[in-house]
Design goal:
The protein is built from two helices and three strands, in the order αββαβ. With about 80 residues, the chain is α+β, with helices and mostly antiparallel strands. The chain has a domain of about 45 residues. The model has no long low-confidence stretch (mean pLDDT about 75).
Length: about 80
């Protein structure tokens, strides 16, 4: 019985002290052109990072329309002719 209480205490402490994982919020998305459909990766801080990824494999980079700056910074400005 005492061992069960210790185990429950450890599980509770681990669950409450563990860091929570949060989804990253980045301003640029890559839209890949694949043979079996399309894929999206919104994990780019700059347009240049995104373009380096899609260059050679096909795709386009667009501003992430769900991006919300965390510290009050401005959202990226998109350029319509950057595809």
């Amino acid at each position: 019985m005492r061992a069960l209480i210790v185990v429950i205490g450890i599980v509770f402490a681990t669950g409450t002290l563990a860091a929570r994982a949060w989804a990253q919020n980045y301003p640029w998305c890559a839209y890949y052109s694949t043979g079996d459909g399309s894929a999206t990766n919104c994990g780019f801080v700059t347009r240049e990072q995104c373009m380096a990824t899609v260059r050679g494999i096909g795709g386009a980079c667009e501003p992430n329309n769900r991006y919300v700056p965390q510290s009050g910074g401005a959202a990226p400005t998109g350029n319509a002719d950057h595809r």
